[in-house]
Design a protein that fits this description.
The strands form eleven sheets. Strands 5-2-1-9-21 form a five-stranded parallel sheet, covered by helices on one side. A five-stranded parallel sheet has the order 11-18-12-13-14, with helices on one face. The chain contains 25 helices and 38 strands. About 2% of the residues have low confidence. It is α/β, with parallel strands linked by helices. The protein is globular and about 85 Å long. The chain folds into five domains: 168 residues, FAD/NAD(P)-binding domain (3-Layer(bba) Sandwich), CATH 3.50.50; 130 residues, 3-Layer(bba) Sandwich (FAD/NAD(P)-binding domain), CATH 3.50.50.60; 69 residues, BFD-like [2Fe-2S]-binding domain (Arc Repressor Mutant, subunit A, Orthogonal Bundle); 57 residues, no CATH class; 156 residues, Sulfite Reductase Hemoprotein, domain 1. Helices cover 32% and strands 21% of the residues.
C-alpha cells in the first residue's frame, strides 16, 4: 500500500514540493491536496499582470486540473481544512469530509494584513492576494473612479499601477519616507516615486491611516494628522501574515509562523511545513525563491534521499511595473562595518549601490538598469571576495564590461533567481531531454516561469548548448497550440489554409474550435493572407467588432459617427442633437479623437440611431485604422505651415475601415507645435516649411511611447503612400493585438525604415494593400440598417 501524503494548501510552495517529490519517487505516495480557492494551482506572482490586463487568469494557471489527474492526485478544491487531529492523523474539511494521512505537509500560505482600524470591514476595502481579490478589483474599477492603496511596498505599487491602467484615479498612502523602504534605500525609493508619478500615480507619504470613512461603503480615509482623502475603494497592501489558524488548533509549535527545523519538520512527527506559513530560525519568507528551496529539501526528506539542511535564503526583489526597473537583494542598510559603493548616472537615470562587509557583497540595489542583477546576486550568494574587482569605472569603452558570455559562467551560476535554477540544471535538461526552445526549458525546469525576466539569459544558455543562435523563444499564441504567430502564418500560406476550421485541424490545435484568445487572431491572419478566398468569420471577432459599437461598463453602447479630420457641419450637429434627444442618450461628449460620441445607448436602439444619423461609423470599436486627429491648419492658424485638416481627411478617405493587428491612430499637425500630439501616434505627421515630418510607432496609452522620426517628405502623396505601406507591412508582420510601438521594437526600427523608404518595396506593399481591400465593406452601420435578419440576431435584447 502506498503511504498517504496530504498537502494542506494548493499554492505555489506546496505544489512545487509535490512536483519535486514526483520527480524523485512518482509511485511513492497516494497524494491528496486540499485547497481553499476555487482554482487549480496558479502563479500568484503574476496577479499584478492580470490586474494590469497583461495576462488572463487562464494564463497564470501553472498546474491545470489535467495535471492532478495525470499524477493521480486527489484535489479537494474550494473546501479548506478546518480541523486537524495529529494523534490519529486525520483532517476534516469545511464540508465535513475526513481524510487520513501518514504524512502531512502544511502549506497554508499567508493572508493580506488588514489594518485594525474603524471601517476596515466596509464594502470596498479589499486585500490583494488571490484571483478573487484581483477580479473584485477589476470589477470595482469598472464602476468607481477613485482608489487608495495603503502601502508603498512591492504588491501595493503593482496593485496601484494595475488600477491606474484600468482608468482609476489612484493614490498610494505610505507610512514611511520613501517607497519600498525594506528593499530600497532612500535615493532609489525617490527615483521610483518620481517615475511612477510621471505615469499618473499620486502619493501621500508619511501618512498614518486612523480611520476608514463610510457607512454602507467606503467613502474616504482619515489620517492621524487630521487630513482626509475621498475614495471609492481601499486596497490594503501593508504586508502579509502567515496563515496558522489550523496549526494553532493542534499541539504544533507556532510563533510568527509554523516553527520548522532545517529539514522542514515541525515538533509533531510526520507533520511538515513549507512556504509563507513556515518559520525557520525566526524568519518567515514571503518571496517565492526561498519557498522553492524549502520544497526541494522537504522532497529529499520525504523520498529518503540525503537532504542538505535548509540554511535560510538570500532574497531578491524586482517590480513588475512597466517603465520601473528595479532590483534589490540582501542587506541594504549601512551600519557599523557595512560600507557601500554607489553610482548614479544622471544622463540615463540609473542608480547602483552595492553594500559590502569584509570584502564581500551583502546587498544590492539597482534602479533603471537591472541587467547585472543576476551577476551581483551570484557574487552575493557565493560569499565571493571582491578584492580583485574594480569598484567604480566610468566611461570605459563599450564591450569592456564583465563578460556576458554564458559559456564562461560556472555551472552553479543562478540563471533564474525566482526558482533557484542554475546553469547546470538548464544545460542538463537541454541535453537530456533534447529541448530546443525557451518554452521547453521553462516547462521542464521551471526557469523563467515566474517573473520571466531571465528568459533572454535562458535563450543565451540554450544557444550555447545547441551550438548556435536562438533567434526567438517560441511560445504558443494561446493554450490551444505551441505554435507562434510566425509558424501559424507560414503554414497558412504553405498549406493554403483558408478557414479557421482548417487551421485548427491541420495544425493540430488541442481545441478543435479554438479559444477566445486565438479565434480573433486566426481570423485576422486569414483575412490578411487570403483577402478574397477567406470569408471573414464574424463570430470570431470580439463583441465590439461584431456589434460595430463599444460596449460600456453598464452594458450600454457608444455611438461615434465619423467626422473626417475632425471636421463637421451644422447639419451633422443638428442630426446628432435630434437623435440624442429622441433616444434619451444620457451623455454626449467630444471624444479624444475630435469626434462627438453618444454614450449609454441601448443595444436595441443602435440600428435605429445609425439609420437616423445617416453618417459613417468612426471605427472606434475596432482593431483597425481609427479616425485621424488634426489641428485647424494653415487655412486658419497663424502658425500653420500646411493644410493639416485636408491631409487628415485624405488619409481617412484612403484607409478607413482597414483591419490592423491593433488600433492604428494617426495625427496631423500643421506646425512643430504639434497641437494634436503627433509624437505619440502610430503614424504622426508634423507640417514644416518644406513639407511633412513623419513619425512612427508612438503610443499614448497605458505605457506612453514616443514616436520615432522616420523621414521628411515634400508632398501629401508621399505621406499617404508611406502610410499605406506601413499599414500593409504592419498587417503582414504584426502579431494580433500588438501595437505599433512593440511591433517596431520587435522588428527593429532600421528594418522598418529600410522597407518603408525603399520605393520598390513601398509600391509592392501598396499593391498588396489595394488588392486586400478591393472588396472591403463600406460603412458597416449601413449593412446592419439594411439587414433585418442581422438586427434580429445581434441587436435583440439578450442576444450577443
Amino acid at each position: 500500500m502506498k503511504e498517504k501524503l496530504v498537502l494542506i494548501g494548493n499554492g505555489m510552495a506546496g505544489v512545487r514540493t509535490i512536483e519535486e517529490i514526483l520527480d524523485r519517487a512518482p509511485e511513492r505516495y497516494q497524494i491528496t491536496i486540499i485547497g481553499e480557492e476555487n482554482y487549480p494551482n496558479y502563479n500568484r506572482i503574476m496577479l499584478s499582470n492580470v490586474l494590469q490586463k497583461k495576462m488572463t487568469v487562464s494564463e497564470i494557471i501553472t498546474n491545470p486540473l489535467e495535471w492532478y489527474e495525470e499524477n493521480q492526485i486527489e484535489l479537494i478544491n474550494h473546501d479548506p481544512a478546518v480541523q486537524m487531529e495529529t494523534t490519529n492523523k486525520k483532517i476534516t474539511t469545511q464540508s465535513g469530509k475526513e481524510i487520513s494521512y501518514d504524512k502531512c505537509i502544511l502549506a497554508t500560505g499567508s493572508r493580506a494584513f488588514i489594518l485594525p482600524v474603524e471601517g476596515a470591514k466596509l464594502p470596498g476595502v479589499v486585500g490583494f492576494r488571490t484571483i478573487d481579490d484581483t477580479e473584485n478589483m477589476l470589477e470595482a474599477a469598472q464602476k468607481y473612479q477613485k482608489a487608495v492603496v495603503i502601502g508603498g511596498g512591492l504588491l501595493g505599487l503593482e496593485a496601484a499601477k494595475g488600477l491606474l491602467d484600468q482608468g482609476m484615479d489612484v493614490t498610494v498612502v505610505h507610512l514611511e519616507k520613501w517607497l519600498m523602504e525594506t528593499q530600497l534605500d532612500e535615493k532609489a525609493g525617490k527615483m521610483l516615486q518620481a517615475d511612477l508619478e510621471k505615469q499618473g500615480l499620486k502619493f501621500l507619504m508619511e501618512k498614518a491611516t486612523q480611520k476608514i470613512l463610510g457607512e454602507k461603503r467606503v467613502t474616504g480615509l482619515a489620517f492621524s494628522d487630521g487630513t482626509t482623502i475621498e475614495t471609492d475603494m481601499v486596497v490594503m497592501s501593508i504586508g502579509i501574515r502567515s496563515e496558522t489558524t489550523l496549526a494553532k488548533t493542534t499541539a504544533i509549535e507556532v510563533n510568527r509562523g509554523i516553527v520548522v527545523d532545517d529539514f522542514m519538520k515541525t515538533n509533531i512527527p510526520d507533520v511538515f511545513a513549507v512556504g509563507e506559513c513556515a518559520e525557520h530560525n525566526g524568519n518567515v519568507y514571503g518571496l517565492v525563491a526561498p519557498l522553492f528551496e524549502q520544497g526541494k529539501v522537504l522532497a529529499d526528506v520525504l523520498t529518503d534521499r540525503e537532504a542538505k539542511p535548509y540554511q535560510g535564503s538570500t532574497t531578491f526583489t524586482s517590480l513588475k511595473v512597466s517603465g520601473c526597473d528595479l532590483y534589490s537583494a540582501g542587506t541594504i542598510k549601512e551600519t557599523e562595518g557595512i560600507n557601500s559603493i554607489e553610482a548614479f548616472d544622471g544622463l540615463n537615470y540609473t542608480y547602483k549601490k552595492i553594500f559590502v562587509r569584509d570584502n564581500q557583497v551583502i546587498g544590492v540595489v539597482l534602479y533603471g538598469d537591472t541587467s547585472e542583477g543576476n551577476r551581483y546576486y551570484n557574487i552575493l550568494k557565493k560569499n565571493e571576495s571582491i578584492e580583485d574587482y574594480t569598484p567604480v569605472s566610468l566611461l570605459h569603452m563599450v564591450g569592456e564590461e564583465a563578460s556576458a558570455d554564458v559559456s564562461e559562467w560556472p555551472d552553479d551560476e543562478v540563471i533564474c533567481g525566482c526558482n533557484g535554477i542554475d546553469k547546470k540544471t538548464i544545460m542538463t535538461a537541454i541535453n537530456e531531454k533534447d529541448l530546443t526552445s525557451v518554452a521547453d526549458v521553462t516547462k521542464h525546469t521551471k526557469a523563467g516561469g515566474s517573473c520571466g525576466k531571465c528568459k533572454s539569459v535562458i535563450g543565451d544558455v540554450l544557444a550555447y548548448a545547441l551550438g548556435g543562435e536562438v533567434v526567438s523563444a517560441p511560445t504558443g499564441i494561446c493554450a490551444c497550440t505551441d505554435l507562434t504567430r510566425d509558424q501559424i502564418v507560414t503554414q497558412i500560406y504553405a498549406k493554403k489554409l483558408t478557414s479557421s476550421e482548417e487551421v485548427y485541424r491541420e495544425l493540430d490545435f488541442t481545441n478543435p474550435e479554438g479559444c477566445p484568445k486565438c479565434r480573433p487572431a486566426i481570423n485576422f491572419y486569414l483575412n490578411v493572407a487570403w483577402p478574397k478566398e477567406h470569408e471573414d468569420e464574424k463570430e470570431s471577432r470580439y463583441v465590439n467588432e461584431r456589434l460595430y459599437a463599444n460596449i460600456q461598463n453598464d452594458g450600454t453602447f457608444s455611438v461615434i459617427p465619423r467626422m473626417r479630420g475632425g471636421k463637421t457641419n451644422p447639419q451633422q450637429l443638428l442630426l446628432i442633437a435630434k437623435v440624442a434627444e429622441k433616444y434619451d442618450v444620457p451623455m454626449v461628449k467630444v471624444t479624444g479623437s475630435q469626434r462627438i460620441g453618444l454614450y449609454g445607448v441601448k443595444k436595441e436602439d443602435l440600428p435605429k440611431i445609425w439609420e437616423e444619423l445617416d453618417m459613417k461609423a468612426a471605427g472606434a470599436y475596432a482593431k483597425a485604422v481609427r479616425s485621424v486627429k488634426t489641428c485647424v491648419g494653415a487655412n486658419f492658424c497663424r502658425f500653420g505651415t500646411q493644410d493639416s485638416m485636408g491631409l487628415g481627411i485624405k488619409l481617412e478617405q484612403r484607409y478607413e475601415f482597414i483591419d490592423t493587428p491593433h488600433k492604428f491612430k494617426m495625427g496631423v499637425s500643421a506646425c512643430p507645435r504639434s497641437c494634436v500630439e503627433s509624437g505619440v501616434k502610430d503614424f504622426g505627421i508634423i507640417g514644416v516649411e518644406n513639407g511633412f515630418q513623419i513619425y512612427v510607432g508612438g503610443n499614448g496609452g497605458t505605457e506612453v511611447k514616443e514616436a520615432v522620426l522616420l523621414t521628411t517628405v515634400e508632398t501629401e502623396e508621399e505621406v499617404i503612400d508611406i502610410c499605406g505601406a506601413m499599414l500593409q507591412y504592419y498587417r503582414e508582420t504584426g502579431i494580433y493585438a500588438e501595437r505599433t510601438a512593440p511591433w517596431i521594437e520587435r522588428m527593429g526600427f532600421e528594418v522598418v525604415k529600410e522597407v518603408l523608404l525603399n520605393a520598390e518595396k513601398r509600391q509592392e506593399l501598396l499593391a498588396a494593400l489595394d488588392e486586400a481591400v478591393a472588396g472591403r465593406r463600406g460603412n458597416p452601420w449601413d449593412e446592419v440598417v439594411e439587414d433585418h435578419k442581422t438586427q434580429q440576431e445581434l441587436y435583440t435584447v439578450g442576444r450577443i
